[in-house]
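Before going further, learn to read the protein records used in this course. The integers have meaning only within a learned vocabulary of local backbone shapes. The record below shows the convention in full.
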Amino acid sequence: MKTLSRIYLMLVMVFLYAPIAVMIVFSFNSGSSVWVFEGLSFDWYKELVFNSEMLGALEHTLIIAVLSAVISTVIGTAAAVGITALRHKISKSLVMSVCNIPMMNADIVTGVSLMLLFIFFGRLFGLTESLGFFTVLIAHVTFNLPYVILSVLPKLKTTDANLPQAAMDLGCTPTQAFFKVVVPSISSGILTGFIMAFTLSLDDFVISYFTCGHYQTLPIVIYNMTKRTVKPDTYALSTLIFISVFVLMILYNSVQGRSEKKRGESR
């Protein structure tokens, strides 16, 4: 039984990471072929530096990802605190159902509906360009919020509800009690929500495609390249993004592991 489970796990890992391994290998290909490895080279990484279209799209993507992650983390944390404060079970379940709709809804439905909404308001206010930077940002914040809320809620539920009151008895204002007591106790959930929002925003295509206008992100630029040809410099950029996210996740897991170890020792 153990042997079968190990084989199954190995097959799953191969299925998940074989495409990424192929992409990384071909990013070091000396030739322009995307199916024949002609030799080891860093030429495509060097050429990536001079690809203004792709670097510009990467800049757009990172700006949107960082801003949407920060905004959705702040709003989502506040929303999670408000949901936890609700005492009426029907009201809480209703609010949670509304929060979960963006997660359950199909991306294409969300993208089309947001596009129509932005175009409607653009025409209403007489704007020449209805879609652009702010529409993409609002769209990303919209689909990131439920993930942040669901990351923070479990931490709030396990936090002692008497801690803020104890802090206020010691002289803190309600605001000071929240930032000095509540926020540190739910910091791991906030960080998880931020990382999830950042990664989801980084690789979103469908919703960005319908709401971007002329402000194109990296997935859209890569999609447009596939209509012509995909050069290995795309593999090089994707490899760098994968390594960055991988390192970020390792750092996060190590920090979370240390914090959980300290909590266990304190108990």
In short: The chain has twelve helices and no strands.
